[in-house]
Design a protein that fits this description.
Layout: E1 2-5, E2 8-11, H1 15-21, E3 26-28, E4 35-36, E5 41-47, E6 50-55, E7 60-65, H2 67-71, H3 75-78, E8 87-91, H4 94-98, H5 104-122, H6 124-131, H7 140-143, H8 149-157
Length: 161
């Protein structure tokens, strides 16, 4: 979530989504005027006919979608914090609901915890590689299909396919 002015925010995904799922082929974004609810499915990323529902971080009305990202979904992973945003919305409870979102140092701590969960899911051989200085590569779902798309969606997006 990025506040762009007043009570208008841009919603997108972070680079962790790229690391886990790789680039989407199709973005199913809510239409302008749609009312989204916090912690309910807000959009769906699809890759190779596999769906990854993403929860809305806030409650509010969708004002616009990023047509550039719809036409070129790879931009969501290549530039998630700028050109790769998904949609703009006018939150209904901005101050209240953003209190439950991670900011600054909390975000880094959360990413560290998620990385640890990911290493455990990948198994001992991957943990050893990381311990030697290796970094998480992009598109783990594509590189390690044995983990299972549904398991990754449930674990990291906290949704069901």
């Amino acid at each position: 979530v990025h506040i762009i002015h007043g009570e208008c925010v841009r919603v997108g995904v972070d680079e962790f989504v790229d690391k886990v799922f790789g680039a989407a082929d199709i973005l199913d974004l809510p239409q302008p005027g749609t009312l989204l609810k916090q912690a309910k499915v807000g959009c769906v990323l699809t890759r190779d006919d596999r769906r990854a529902p993403v929860l809305s971080p806030l409650t509010g009305r969708v004002l616009a979608v990023n047509e550039k990202a719809v036409r070129n979904p790879e931009i969501v992973c290549k530039d998630p914090y700028y050109d790769g945003w998904l949609f703009q919305m006018e939150p209904s409870f901005l101050k209240l609901e953003t209190q439950g979102l991670y900011t600054d140092e909390q975000t880094f701590e959360w990413m560290e915890r998620e990385n640890e969960r990911l290493f455990k899911l990948l198994g001992p051989s991957y943990e050893k590689m990381v311990a030697t200085g290796g970094e998480i590569v992009s598109d783990l779902a594509g590189r390690f299909p044995e983990i299972g798309w549904d398991a990754l969606v449930a674990t990291f997006l906290r949704t069901r396919v």
